[in-house]
Amino acid sequence: MERARFIEVVRRALGDIPPPFADQLRKVDIVVTRRPTRGDLADAGLAAGESMYGFYRGIPLTERDGGYSMVAPDVIHIYQEPLEEDCETDDELMEEIRTTVVHELAHFFGIDDERLEELGVD
């Protein structure tokens, strides 16, 4: 899929995110990248050759204190190629993008993968 079309699918998917999460999207940059770098995989605890659909990079709200200022904005990376490889239709792609953004946004709130699994949002 052409990058511009993929970005449009991401925009449509973001428009369908439920209000409690959508309200927080203004505080996080969403960046579309072809695929995760080796550094992204290492930061996520994954080995080379593994992949992921998204990655949150930032300081979770639960770890911020009075000295939190002058830091780079929080970013959610959406990885185009792994999503395209695993999703067969645009509807499936949009649903997986929504799920991925909500998952990564949960990390922004300080919720780790273990707790997300307990909640059934993995």
How are the SSEs placed, and which strands pair?
Layout: H1 3-15, H2 19-22, E1 28-33, H3 38-43, E2 54-57, E3 74-79, H4 80-86, H5 90-108, H6 113-119
Parallel strand pairs: 1-3
Antiparallel strand pairs: 2-3
Structure description:
The chain has 122 residues and is of the alpha+beta class. The protein has six helices and three strands. The protein has a three-stranded mixed beta sheet. 18% of the residues are buried. The model has no long low-confidence stretch (mean pLDDT 88).
Gist of the model:
It is built from six helices and three strands, in the order ααβαββααα. The protein has 122 residues and is an alpha+beta fold.
* Strand ordering within the main sheet: 1-3-2
Mean pLDDT: 88
Order of H and E elements: HHEHEEHHH
Largest sheet: 3 strands, mixed
The shape, in one word, is globular
* Helix vs. strand class: alpha+beta
Which features would summarize this protein structure in a list?
globular; 3 strands
